[in-house]
Prior knowledge:
Elements (H helix, E strand, L loop, with lengths): L8 H8 L5 H10 E4 L3 E5 L5 E4 L1 H11 L6 H4 L1 E2 L7 E2 L5 E9 L1 H8 L4 H17 L7 E8 L4 E10 L2 E6 L2 H4 L3 H4 L11 E7 L2 E2 L18 E6 L10 H30 L3 H6 L1 H22 L1 H20 L9 H22 L5 H15 L13 H12 L6 H19 L4 H7 L4 H11 L5 H17 L3 H43 L12 E6 L3 E2 L5 E2 L2 E3 H7 L10 H6 L8 E6 L11 E3 L5 E8 L17 E5 H11 L3 H12 L1
Antiparallel strand pairs: 1-2, 1-6, 2-3, 3-10, 4-9, 5-9, 6-8, 7-8, 9-10, 10-11, 12-13, 12-18, 14-15, 16-17, 17-20, 18-19, 19-20
Helix pairs in contact: 5-6, 6-20, 9-11, 9-13, 9-16, 13-16, 13-20, 14-19, 14-20, 16-17, 16-18
Amino acid sequence: MWTFDHFPTAKVAKTYGAGPSAAFLDHVRKSSLRVAGGCSASFISPNGLVMTNHHCVVECVGGLSTSTQNYVENGFITHSTADERECPDFEIDQLVAITDISRTIQSAIAGKSGAAQNAALRAAQAAAQATCGKDPAVRCDVVSLYHGGVYDLYRYKRYQDVRLAFAPEFSVAQYGGDPDNFNFPRFNFDIGLLRVYENGKPAVTPDYLRFSPNGTKAGELIYVSGNPGGTDRELTLSQLVYQRDYALPATLSLLAERRGIIEDFQRLGSEQRREANEDRFYTENSIKAFTGERYALVDPAFFAKKVREERELRAAVAKNPKLAGYASAWDQIAAVQTVRLRMSAQIQATSTFRRGLFDDAFALVRAGDERLKPNAVRLPEYTDAGLVGIAASLEANQPTYLDLEERQQAFNFDHLRAVLGADNPLTKTFLGRESPDGLAHRLFSQTKLGDAAVRKALFDGGAPAIAASTDPLIVYARSIDPTLRAIRKATEDQIDAPTRSAAERIAKARFAVYGSSVDPDATFSPRLSYGAVKGFDDASGTFVPPYTTIGGLFGRTTGAAPYVLPKSWLDAQSSLDPATPMNFSGTLDVVGGNSGSPVVNAQGQVVGLLFDGNIFSLGGDYGYDAAKNRSIAVDSRALIAGLSKVYHADSLVSEIETAAAK
């Protein structure tokens, strides 16, 4: 997962005979995109056409749907730009520049600890972001690499007028559902097409990726350009033990209960099933992902490798007198885990609150308070740079499902009471003398925050409007926000700051021993990974070939969920070549956040659309296993076949093919 400015070209050339040129890297970077909220994408035409995964646009598709027009179930097809529909609360970012600001940030926090370090870091980050000005079309993020060993300022071009151009039916986009998730063979048509607009017109995007007419072959060198959301490969053993023995089990238990709440809600009727469809999909996906992460940590061989790696690094540090100042960093992080465990119950219990309109209420309350402060001392997400995205989200005219949100919040209240106990002061602060169900019903049955105009008026009115509001969600958020702020401050001062200081010292030790031969942990910032089209041996030792076909898609269909093909595909079966590659696996190193990433060949042409990894990739958060870890992509040949012969999206296909020919 290499940054574009430090890509190991020589290493690729040594393995595959040739590495990417500077022009290749620059072009792929400018053509690649980040979808705010957790996905990746790419430009595929000079007219702002964007390719990503269906599951990265499903929230938009759901937001455009109604009880009488279900685009999630039935798909969304346009035949001209006039048919494209604006996605509520959607942002796409294009990285245009990287500036190393390590010396500035590290000097600002040097010699400080706890609250003082946090304050200095916030001020330095805000100052760095401020250098980008106040143009809402510009976004600047401070990116920490190697756990504080390097700080970069990433400057993005921000697109907030994003419109849906195409989405297939959910059943074929997520074909195989939860049973096939993180498995291979796969047969998904997981694509969504968007278009970015500027000044009401399709944006001019001269850097874009051209489709390959020939796809790939086994063993071929491929690259994936995307935004891996986060990895923990540089964590110490004490941190991994905390994840294995407490954090992951607690998270999985919570998600399992939440899935039960969603399933019960969906049984109430077809409309409830539609309202909760996305929540159920993401919850089930998270359960499988976190389960895979824990399997990696409880695997004796995998954990033994992590033990060996840490021992080797600490031994190298111990042998070098110049590195003596770094030796205690691992013990300091171990001590922090004791603090983390002591605070874990209140952190876990109160971290489940921020969802839907509840999140909007807290955003409004905090925005009102934070905007009264100088930019340098605000919470990071409420600086002038951060408020652009918050304002857009609050003002977006997206559907709200009060019945679903009420049930989910009642569960959150009940979970808090179960974790902390009925007599805990925090429980009394959050619930008072009300029951979880009663409190949730009172808040959601009377709130007006579902109206975007109401949210906009409160945001524009600032602190006076928030103070005067009698909306029950605003009143509640005002009442408990001081407590949540106190918990956050304690977490940042007692856990985050000392961890950051020690992790930075370990990063410097790692640099001293290994140099930059190891890629940094993922940070949901642009990265480029390389590998090859390749199969793998499954758990039984049977070889799994790297390609599936369209014929295999029809052969897998049973007529019962989740192996049901929509009518559009059944009607088009005779026109499709069954030998056309459908999905393929490769050795690309990817994790969550890479969804929607373009897979390109050595010429920079699109040969696939990444959407998942196999079951062995789930341990990728903590380490990469080249023997079995595989990425999974929709083959470019299947993408064109589906768009042209199944959906007859002729204008979009023509745009893609015309762009590819230029």
